[in-house]
Design brief:
The chain is an alpha+beta fold and 913 residues long. It is 19% helix and 33% strand. Strands 29-28-27-26-25-35-33-30 form an eight-stranded parallel beta sheet. Strands 44, 45, 46, 47, 48, 49 and 50 form a seven-stranded mixed beta sheet that branches. A six-stranded antiparallel beta sheet has the order 3-2-8-13-10-11, with no helix packed on it.
Length: 913
């Protein structure tokens, strides 16, 4: 029986292969190859298309993967480094065998993705040249390919065809790289002369209809045939079918038909991504052409403040895909790779992906259709002189039409934008918007992501509107604020590139880079850290800055969810962007793997279709105060939430419940932000300083929580009477007497500290303060009365924003108690607080301004009390001994330590300045 089954399987495989070979030939495999760096291959006398090429390469693939090009020894600190670099013409060649039964058929060469201009030759004759960055190249070879053997030669040229800025993610070395090659499907296909070129599917959810616009390869004579349309579910169940005899007049190439499907279809959205097939069969003289298009029943519209899908408001919880593919250097063309990415996106509660200045291969659309993600697609446009070059403008228009034709049927394709942060003649960009709207009304259009808003926009992604900033980069101690005023314009507003909080690199990640790109930037950063004696701190720095980034993204997301008229946000980012200066801004690495900083489940508490929200005025309290909070719900779930209740509690780190209660709520409709009521929690029962968590939970298990810090009133008062000195001269006198000294210098030449880490990354943006975060020795006895974690949580806000960090790089063995983490490009040892033994005395240094706004700085007073108690106790025992003259160099130096903000051409180019 097993033998029979094996034979049957082999027979079915051979039948399938025979059917495939009957109309399609796979051209993947080994090709002959030759680089043409001087570009002579098309010049008479040097024609490479008439020559048998001498090297070999595997396709699909790139020159990088084949080890072709110039070996690169440079270690770029602002991006990953290609092992091999090449820019210019590259030639690919092989023999093709055209079957006898292809005679009389149209023969088409399919090249799914080339980069960027492609010329095709058959037997030395030029078939044609095309330039595409977003869609497949297709060449008709019929006139050149009679049955028998032919030589197919391709020339791919990845040089810039038009003046472009270096940043767009289709071409830049900072993202997918400016690769040369052919990836995805490479095939020859035979079709009947009157074949179906493509089909556009227009579902009508109100009337239960599907309109099919069918484009047929026209001929010079009239053609009669049978046209059959079938709409079916993915499992094959037929919803509707219709067949009719039609006659196409000479040179007629388009047919439009409407098929009624009734009301038994399911709508496509993020919760129920129901998919259908429209199969079109065109039969002429017994020859049948068939095309099957996947689509979904959905309708996207512009609402007052929200994008509307299927008659209801949606809110976009999005991220940016910046075309980062560290192993290949080019985009994935298989569905499974994109399913892995998009499943990860949804695991973290997001429903939207913006493709920043690029368009992915069709596999991404298929995956998004299946998963239920809303996509924003962009042209390869990021320029500051829009309208200057007519040829470039024509190229962008051609690309737009090609994108709409190729991917327009996919229900996930909701939004179309010309590109990122463009500047110049916006009438040109608006003209493209109007043409797109007229050409294909299944999507919403916008002239540019950021920079300017035009009348024809149907949505607007930007940092700001004419009413102010809408993007949120970091949180605040108060959560009682939003961006409602700024978001109140005439179209849905989506916050552009929110977040962007940089963290220290994870050096353990480098072993993953086994492809065409090497993490030499990581290696440089690691070497510099080691040279400054802090390699053992690398993991501490990564975890501390990573935890702070997680904290910030919770606040960033919730602020925009509290904004009832927000159309959404696009986080930058969920994953790292290892270019543009090495931007480690993701809670996932560049491979879309978790860094271990936060679980998807925890992240979804503050980023999901339904999220509980809280508005309160601050994070630090005295136990004589009350914690007052207004509760809200962000409700963009699948359905209305029934009448029910909400439980709340305030618990300590020991899990002791300090207070609890319950609130009832009415039915909560989808599509907005609603109030749930207010809670007042007196804090007088709390006697111990510490972190307390306010947790809320609905009947259905949806929960969220926020941390506050409560300190005893009496201790905060005692902090006014601490024993310290504020000049180095006074400190030295006491040290010479063998005393314990708390030194809080009134003036110190150091670097400004800050609660929030660096924006985007410090290599690209040389902005003060040049730090990426703060590490705290949380187990140190100085914090006995100031419970803290190892990173800057919210109680550190009114401390770190008033501090200085002194450079202790020369003190190899000295470990700071509180350390500003320097930029990973420089890696200096920056101490906010440290302790040393000086002769017979003991010194604790705290570089803080303890004069300004002290009436408002509850946490600062508590920290002072705790450090003062430690310094004047028997526990004060510094491990490192330093002679006083070395400290003279720090505290008597007249050299300013603040980072100078220098002009940077790369920044100006990035900002289109």
């Amino acid at each position: 029986m097993k033998f029979v089954f094996t034979l049957l399987s082999l027979f079915l495989f051979q039948c399938a292969l025979a059917v495939q070979q009957a109309d399609k030939i796979d051209l993947s495999g080994i090709w002959r190859f030759q680089l043409d760096p001087m570009g002579f291959g098309k010049i008479p006398g040097s024609e490479l298309y008439q020559t048998k090429l001498t090297e070999t390469i595997m396709l699909p693939g790139s020159t990088d993967q084949a080890g072709k090009g110039i070996p690169n020894q440079v270690a770029y600190v602002d991006r990953l480094s290609r092992k091999y670099e090449y820019c210019g013409q590259a030639w690919y060649q092989r023999e093709i065998l055209i079957p006898q039964d292809w005679s009389g058929k149209e023969i088409i060469l399919n090249l799914e993705r080339c980069h960027w201009e492609t010329a095709v030759y058959v037997d030395g004759a030029l078939v044609g040249t095309d330039e595409r960055l977003c869609t497949p190249n297709r060449f008709v070879l019929t006139k050149y390919c009679t049955p028998g053997t032919h030589i197919l030669t391709l020339c791919v040229d990845n040089r810039m065809k038009y003046p472009m800025d270096v940043w767009n993610h289709t071409l830049t070395e900072h993202a997918q790289t400016n690769w040369n090659g052919i990836v995805g499907e490479i095939s020859l296909e035979a079709k009947m002369p009157d074949y179906i070129k493509h089909v556009k599917v227009y579902p009508d959810i109100e009337n239960g209809q599907v309109t099919a616009k069918i484009y047929i390869n026209s001929s010079e004579k009239a053609v009669k045939g049978n046209l059959m349309l079938t709409v079916s579910e993915k499992n094959g169940k037929i919803l509707a079918s219709d067949s009719e005899e039609i006659e196409l007049s000479s040179n007629q190439s388009a047919v439009e038909r409407i098929l009624s499907v009734g009301k038994k279809f399911k709508l496509w959205d993020e919760f129920n991504p129901a998919l259908y097939n429209l199969t079109v069969e065109w039969t002429v003289d017994g020859n049948k052409a068939s095309v099957c298009e996947q689509f979904g029943f959905r309708k996207v519209e512009k609402g007052a403040h929200h994008i509307r899908l299927n008659g209801r408001n949606i809110h976009l919880r999005g991220l940016l895909d910046c075309a980062v593919f560290p192993l290949t250097g080019y985009p994935a063309t298989d569905v499974e790779s994109w399913l892995r990415i998009f499943r990860t996106v949804k695991e973290y509660g997001l429903n939207h992906v913006r493709f920043h200045s690029w368009c992915p291969p069709e596999a991404a659309f298929y995956a998004a259709d299946e998963i239920g993600l809303y996509l924003q697609v962009e042209l390869p446009m990021w320029v500051k002189n829009v309208g200057k070059y007519p040829e470039r403008r024509d190229f962008f228009e051609k690309e737009m039409y090609a994108v709409l034709d190729e991917y327009g049927n996919h229900p996930s394709f909701l939004l179309m934008c010309n590109g990122n942060e463009n500047e110049g003649d916006f009438t040109v960009l608006e003209d493209l918007v109007k043409k797109g709207q007229s050409y294909d009304n299944r999507h919403l259009y916008s002239a540019s992501t950021a920079r300017d808003h035009v009348k024809s926009d149907e949505f607007y992604v930007s940092h700001l509107t004419e009413k102010g900033w809408i993007t949120v980069y970091d949180g605040q101690p108060s959560t009682d604020w939003d961006r409602s005023k700024e978001s109140d314009i005439d179209v849905p507003v989506i916050a552009h590139e929110s977040g962007q909080r940089c963290m220290f690199p994870n050096f353990n990640e480098t072993s993953k880079y086994t492809g065409v790109l090497e993490p030499r930037n990581f290696q440089v950063f690691k070497q510099r850290l080691a040279a400054n004696g802090m390699l053992h701190k690398a993991d501490d720095f990564f975890k501390a800055t990573g935890a702070h980034t997680v904290l910030q993204y919770k606040e960033v997301n919730e602020a925009l969810m509290r904004t009832a008229n927000s159309g959404g946000f696009q986080l930058l980012g969920l994953s790292d962007f290892p270019g543009q200066g090495s931007a480690f801004v993701g809670i996932l690495d560049a491979f879309w793997d978790s860094k271990g900083l936060v679980t998807p489940e925890k992240y979804r508490e503050s980023c999901a279709p339904v999220v509980l929200l809280a508005r309160f005025p601050k994070r630090t309290y005295l136990n004589s105060e009350s914690f007052n909070v207004k509760l809200e719900i962000y409700q963009y779930g699948e359905k209305n939430l029934a009448k029910g209740s909400l439980d709340w509690c305030l618990i300590g780190e020991n899990q002791k419940v300090m207070a609890k209660g319950k609130l009832g709520h009415a039915m909560l409709p989808v599509g907005g932000v609603d109030s749930l009521g207010q809670v007042q929690v007196p804090l007088h029962n709390i006697q111990e300083a510490g972190k307390y968590t306010f947790r809320v939970c609905l009947d259905n298990g949806i929960q969220n929580e926020w941390d506050i810090w409560v300190y005893p009133q009496e201790i905060n008062t005692l902090a006014n009477n601490i024993q310290y000195v504020n000049t180095w001269e006074d400190a030295k006198q006491k040290l010479e007497k063998g005393e314990n000294v708390l030194f809080i210098p009134s003036k110190v030449n150091g670097r400004n500290t800050k609660f929030t880490g660096h924006f985007w990354n410090p290599v690209m943006f040389n902005w003060d303060p040049m730090i990426v975060g703060t590490w705290i020795d949380s187990s140190h006895p100085a914090f006995q009365h100031f419970p803290t974690s190892y990173y800057a949580d919210w109680q550190w806000w009114d401390i770190l924003n008033y501090g200085k960090a002194v450079d202790l790089t020369a003190f190899y063995t000295l470990e700071p108690v509180i350390q500003s983490i320097d930029t990973y490009e420089v890696n200096r040892k920056l101490a906010i607080a440290f302790e040393v033994k000086v002769g017979d005395g003991k010194l604790f240094v705290l570089c803080m301004d303890i004069q300004k706004d002290m009436d408002k700085r509850i946490a600062m007073k508590q920290l002072l009390y705790s450090i003062n108690a430690y310094v004047h106790s028997a526990a004060f025992s510094p491990k490192t001994e330093v002679p006083s003259y070395l400290l003279d160099a720090i505290f008597l130096s007249e050299t300013k330590g603040n980072t100078k903000i220098e002009d940077n051409a790369a920044i100006r180019q990035l900002l289109n300045q």
